């Protein structure tokens, strides 16, 4: 009766969207040719890219890798009938020098190892998503691989076997148990691997030893200084009160380092000689020099920056103004003037007869420079912390230092990590300035290399290579920093 | 149990300096101050001792001695018999010149790139990303050297402009020449000029100020002010009646006519550069070192500014854009009336620090031989006189002053545009 | 906070490592290494090769001094220095001797308190111009753009020359020789001025050296030589007489090839005194008797070093010119070893 229905009872089958809005064509239309203006822009951009690549690629594609001098390059390029071409022979001959400078060729394993270990030491600080087992596994693996590059001896073989066993064992547990299994095991009382931060703390002493060599007892003695400071604090704090104990706990290690550490190291070395062949900092060069200056300066400037940031935030007028004056002065002058100070003035400021070598002086000034910037980064972190955190710490009855140590700093530092990374990137790029005061970093070396009659007249290849080196480093760091920023943001909100 | 009585008057004991929180902060501060002063005193005494050993008493008299070297790029007159102080002053002006030009160019490029990075056009957005990453991740020193090398290698030498069939030719009606020695552009000249004012007589810091230029600039600014008044009147009328009168022709008239009139009275003409002897003569010569430094610094800083601008725009919540769109504003007006004014507040503080960075990075001029304050005072003067302590000290103080001034001025501006929270 | 102390540890290590004193010789011996300041890179005079070994005319002198003092020509720590840092580094005892193509001038000797120990290369400032510029004399350079290295005496000489001849010029300051070369080749400057040796060395590496001329005017005297600090005459003597020994060896025909033979004893008493088989010259200097023999064996005599590093058989191809022995028409004339 009511056959007439005005409403469709069954749906029509879905139809494909018009081809011009999907797939490659749709994407192109939406993103590149959306309107006249956009089309013009796209065409202009593509034209620019083609033009630039059209000039650069033929130049780069030049079979001169094995040339021994610029003249040979010219011959090869001339024979291939091109007007101009790159001369890659210089990179082929000099890249080890660009990376390591004058570091003795047979010892170059050491800085390389220090470099890889740096990442492993940083993992627990920066990547908190890797499990402990993974961390220890990587450490054992790197050490194991490194042993293959050392001269073989009976001791080395034993070390190799031990490391191989460690790699296999930790690797096996990694493969055998997933993360949640492992969590259950731990809950059931399984023993956890030690915190990898232990290695990070050790690395602080390991790195200078690997780079500069010398007896093992110097870094051991330096580490002992901390133990002494900690003991002084622990023993004296109940007797003399916290503040006095803190002051003494700072003073005692300083005395130890200045007066006794040298004696300790030489005495222990006489008893139990063990060390690496010393390398003077003068022999550092190339990228190794940049990385050494950058990493050391940032690592040392972190605690200085914390102190300065706290000083700037404090309500003690004199402390505050001293911090402000220091920070603003350093931030107000260009790094190059500080490097001039390092190269020509620092020795005048120190007691007559002191003779730091230039690289150490540059590291000192770079540290001073970085600490002012670091202080501002950390101050930003402190300021970003909600006021409730400070008040809660007060409400718990924590004193200033306890509040800082347990509540404020861990959070503020975490917020500051992206800022710290970008300060590091900036400093790392700025290490090229040392070429102006005659240190042979990659840029400085490029001048020295051109003073070789074989390579006199080479410009683009060297600069391009250096630019690429820096780009790889800083680009990956900045990507990592961005990733970290995203992660931290979700954690925080 | 508790009784409200005055606390007993304690007699002051020495230990209270440490244990009593009223005095403790004072104690800490005094200890810190004494420590710092001791450190400074120690440094100074070392310095005095060392300088005495070297037989170099600190003295600033070298500043008055004749410099003996020439400076090519200069804003004020200078010759090699002038004093070191004069050379330093030339250098200082050069620093300020490149910093000023750099800040402007970097802002323009930075805003342009920052906005384009958010473009819907995939190619353009990618291209801008490549630009930003390329410039941000390579040291500025390398960029300066590279830009200099590019300028030198790709542009024609002046001798290419010579001959019957020159390989290169001047542009814009033979008035501009791009050579690898720099850019030659026409200079403004006045045939009936009213002359210059000589400030500071014959002192090292003397400089001339062109009255003609002042007259022209003053007229122009007056025109701008009047056009501002016209805008305000238009606003009032719009507020009262809802119609906005057409004002652009009035504005153009009050700005252009008086300025042109003053120019005509002063007999304005352009001095074009001409090929003469080895070089171009006449016109203004912007040396290749200046151009290279300027380009490199502005492109490098622009990459950072682009990121700041992008972040600033992204920080404005989408609701703002949508609300503006709902009010019927057009795309361009949304950007200029709603998004940018708000984004500006986010952008300005980091922008200030980029300006500061640019100014400080201009000290890398030394790498391309641009004679800024680092190149003159802390460069050649230092080398010729051997006065390291004095020259570097003065140089640092000058940079400090510049930096503090920039941050002071920019902070004033920042305070002016800051969100007034109620 | 722990990290502060790397620096602390390093500081202590560095402070115990070296302290300068007046007796440079004792310092060098105690250190077992000579610290020698050289150019960061100047073709033919000092440049590191692919293995990081410094080579060149100035570097060879450093090796000779190390050989004379320590008996080992490789006991040298080369310290690359810029024009800005060279004098401070020497004054602050960062280097024991500066062998960095430095012009001996009154003010450097007297006012900056250094002691030039002699001249190892007589140079003079010249100009190089492309042939097609059509210039045959520096006096025709009115209005020209001149590339010039900053921080050296050349800058002042240039200003003086143009002022004296009342012609104008446009200076283009450059930091390094390599940079100057690029600018000059691209035509960013009309002429390039530096020491004539540097011009020749630079021209030699051009793709077409014959397209460039070195103008006849030499506008200054540039006696280049090694220098030491004021106030340690004994060390100055060692540096001076090592240089003299190299030059005298050439004059006397002592080469690295025949030195072993001659050291066994020869008919010429001066050679015997020089090589330590007669007399006690070494002892007077506070060195071993065979100091000069070691110095000469390090890289050969003056002539050999010259030929190997910058001479006519090298790409740089400098003629001896003024730097020939006085017998051969040059002005190398060393005091007798007696």
TrEMBL record, chain A:
Pfam short name (any one): BPD_transp_1
PROSITE patterns: ABC_TM1
Transmembrane segments: 36-61, 109-127, 134-151, 157-176, 197-217, 223-248, 255-275, 287-310, 322-346, 358-378, 415-440, 460-480
Keyword flag DNA repair: no
Domain annotation ABC transmembrane type-1: ranges: 287-481
Top-level taxonomic group: Bacteria
Localisation: Cell inner membrane; Cell membrane
Gene3D superfamilies (alphabetical): MetI-like
Membrane topology recorded in Swiss-Prot or TrEMBL: Multi-pass membrane protein
Predominant cellular place of this UniProt entry's protein: membrane
Keywords: Cell membrane, Membrane, Transmembrane, Transmembrane helix, Transport
Family: Belongs to the binding-protein-dependent transport system permease family. HisMQ subfamily.
This protein's name: Amino acid ABC transporter permease
Encoding gene, per UniProt annotation: bztC
TrEMBL record, chain B:
Start and end residues of each ABC transmembrane type-1 domain: 92-410
Location within or outside the cell: Cell inner membrane; Cell membrane
Ranges that cross the membrane: 23-44, 96-119, 140-161, 213-231, 252-271, 291-313, 334-356, 392-413
CDD domains: TM_PBP2
Keywords on record: Amino-acid transport, Cell membrane, Membrane, Transmembrane, Transmembrane helix, Transport
Classification via Gene3D superfamilies: MetI-like
Nucleus is among the record's keywords: no
Signal sequence, start to end: none
InterPro entries, sorted: AA_ABC_transptr_permease_3TM (IPR010065), ArtM/GltK/GlnP/TcyL/YhdX-like (IPR043429), MetI-like (IPR000515), MetI-like_sf (IPR035906)
Location, primary (coarse class): membrane
Pfam families: BPD_transp_1
Topology versus the membrane: Multi-pass membrane protein
Family in the record: Belongs to the binding-protein-dependent transport system permease family. HisMQ subfamily.
The protein, known as: Amino acid ABC transporter permease
Lineage: Bacteria, Pseudomonadati, Pseudomonadota, Alphaproteobacteria, Rhodobacterales
TrEMBL record, chain C:
InterPro entries on file: Bact_solute-bind_prot3, Solute-binding_3/MltF_N
This protein's record includes keyword Ligase: no
Start and end residues of each Solute-binding protein family 3/N-terminal domain: 33-262
Matching Pfam families: SBP_bac_3
Record's keyword terms, sorted: Signal, Transport
Gene3D superfamilies, per database record: Periplasmic binding protein-like II
Annotated signal peptide: 1-22
Family that this chain belongs to: Belongs to the bacterial solute-binding protein 3 family.
PANTHER family: AMINO ACID ABC TRANSPORTER PERMEASE, AMINO-ACID ABC TRANSPORTER-BINDING PROTEIN YHDW-RELATED
Name used for this protein in its record: Amino acid ABC transporter substrate-binding protein
Organism of provenance: Sinisalibacter aestuarii
Gene giving rise to this polypeptide: bztA
